[in-house]
# Entry
Amino acid sequence: MQTGARKSAQVPLGVGKEVRVNPAWIGGAEKSTRAGMFGTEVVKAGKSRVYVAAENRLLQEALSRMLGKVEDIQVAGTSVSTPFEPQALLAEPADILLLSSSGNLGEDLLLIRKVRTSSPDVQILLIGMSGEEAEFLQCVRGGVRGYLLRDASAEDVLDAVRAVRAGEVVCPGTLCGLLFRYFEREATSLPSASVHQRLGLTRREQQLIPLIAEGRTNKEIANHFCLSEQTVKNHLYRMKHKVGAGDRLGIVQVCRTQGFMV
# Structure
């Protein structure tokens, strides 16, 4: 983030000590390209419309006051409803939804998906997260453009808002390398396509087979792929029907007879 953007942002939010948050660029885009994602004139001259949603009224008011003092940002609306209602973005359009975590990952992911469905052009900046690796990756998979830890400072939030508006994706530097390792693991864990042809298994379902063969639990498999346990259960249910197996062991046995190396 540019140091020049750090002004009028020293007001603490009461969410912990100040920590600098480093933006992580995914895809290696050049600076000129990033600005072009929203149009150079919009990024430089137009105000970023930010909708602030926080369950804690004190936090919501602090964020709104801080953003309202900045010339290039306009507070489009605020909410302290529990949970946040995505329909509010239809009444008060915004470029960015500054969303405070509810403290429940499942609820956060559900809300993120609803916003992505109802307002796909709104970029989501999520704050107040724990920083756990599985939690972080699930939020990224859900569609957030920015992810800040619960001890982020007001300056961090302001920088992140500007970065997201410019087309950047933002996350703590400590988690940046995790994204690269995750995609590397995804690329190297693909089994033979012949299994898909014979059994109709999807790419993800094929990836589950070696872990099922190792005897891993649904929770362990979910953590490995940064999925929810319910998603793993759904995969297993469909896999049993596709291969004609009665249980997890049956899935592995059928795949072995079809030439899948596990």
